[in-house]
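User: Okay, second chain of the day. Same drill as before: sequence in, C-alpha cells out.
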Amino acid sequence: MLHKGVGFTQLTKRAGVSQGSLTIWLGDRGAPTSRNMQKIAEVLGVQPEDLYRSPYEPAETTIKPPQKLVPVLGYAACGSPAEHWAETTNKFIDAGDIGGLITPFVLVAKGRSMFPMIYEKDQLLCSQVELKQLKDEMLVVVSFKTIPDTADANAKLITLKKNSCTLYSINANYKPFDVSYSDIFKIYRVVRIIRDIK
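Assistant: Same drill. C-alpha cells below.
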C-alpha cells in the first residue's frame, strides 16, 4: 500500500490515521474503513481501488517530495582539488524549513580548509542568490565554469570586489585566491550547515 515517495510516518500524519491501524492493515490483519481508505488514497494521489492491486503500481502517478526534502547533489570541496557534484544521485534529505529559498539543494563537505566551521561530511544547505545579495565574509559555494558535464565547486568565505572576488578558508594552510566573475558559473549561499552528531 505504501507509495515510493511517501514514508510510513508521513502517510499516517497526512491521512490522519494511527500508525498502529496502518500496521494492522498492511499486515492483512484487518481492513480500513472506506473513509480511511479514501484519505490514504488522497495522500498517495491515487484512486482508492488502486490500493487493492497487488503489488501496487500506479498508472503514471508521481508524487512531488514535500517542501522539506532537498536533493543531495554531490560534494563541495573545502580545500583542493574541487570535486565533481555528480558523485551522488537520487538522494533527498529532510532539511527542515526551506521556505523562501531559491532552488535549494545540499552538498556534502569534503576536506578540512573550513575547519572548525565546516567538518568533513557536513551537509551544506545551499540556495541560489544574485550577486547583489552577497556580502563580505558570507559563506558560499562557488561553482566555476568548467568543461561540459562537470561542475567544480568550493565552499569558502567571500570578499567582494568590482570585477572579481576573493575566496578564502578558515584554515590558514589554504591560501586565499582571487577569481574573476567571468570564471564563475554561479555562487550559492550556504544557508545552513547540517551536522550528524554521533
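Helices lie at 8-15, 19-26, 34-44.

User: Thanks, on to the next one.
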